[in-house]
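Predict structure. Chain length: 318.
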Amino acid sequence: MFRRTTLIASAAVLTLATGCGAADMTKQASPFANARGAKTVTLSVQSWVGAQANVAVAQYLLEHELGYRVDTVQVDEVPAWDALSQGRVDALLEDWGHPEQEQRYVEEKKTVTRGGDLGVTGHIGWYVPTYFAKKHPDVTDWKNLNKYADEFRTAESGGKGQLMDGSPSYVTNDKALVKNLGLDYKVVFAGSEAAQITQIKQFAKEKKPFLTYWYSPQWLFEKVPMTEVKLPPYKEGCDADPEKVACAYPHTPLQKYLNTDFAEKGGKAAAFLKNFQWTTADQNEVSLMIAEQKLSPEEAAKRWVERHEATWKAWLPR
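Prediction complete.
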């Protein structure tokens, strides 16, 4: 995301049950990736559902409108850059900002090429349920969090308040923030996006207070309204030293990246992926169908495509 501390496909890979802490599968990349003369595309799949929605729609249109075979590989965020550089995957459709990888692969090695804005702005933050914020408005200022530590305490957090994170694979600043802001909290990892969603829903069902690391865009906000806790304002460079971070996460325009050979020789598929750009509302529409309505990614993509022809027609290369 800048760095997503954290913060998309074959049917087997593209499931909500897959946590954000997906296994590194770069060694098992598609045999079709970067295949010379073959009309195939290999997309990197991150495990959060918004990113899965990107891949589902891109895959559907590449297959049904442009006649490509699309293969997918699930890879964690940082290893995805290695796979992209090596040609094991052709494109990464949702990156939350990894400056070290950008410098190494885009600027220095030039094995990865920028694919443009996804059209969605991502933001990570700390959130409490809106029902709790309405009762205790001052909880939305980080300076007052210690006042509520006891209410956020769980069996996993011991004598401290719980700050719930998702997967340990996310690039998160939360442990440093807790320490540097002097907060009486413990970061507790749910294990994956899916597990975190389950926990949040359970807390909400019981109207219990909770403090959680979360991010937008994300369809869950429509099911469990949450209010952001204001952390010290983000300023450029305030998160440069991971050990000294004491500021909020930035708002980050999410980016696409392509393997450079694919970007230059990938024909209509590469042109299409560069043109692919939609809104937060578009992404959430597909995400909700996958995660809440339990449609297959292909069916969710098909329904979105049927409703939004004017949007995706503009992505097709002329």
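Summary: DSSP finds eleven helices and nine strands in the chain.
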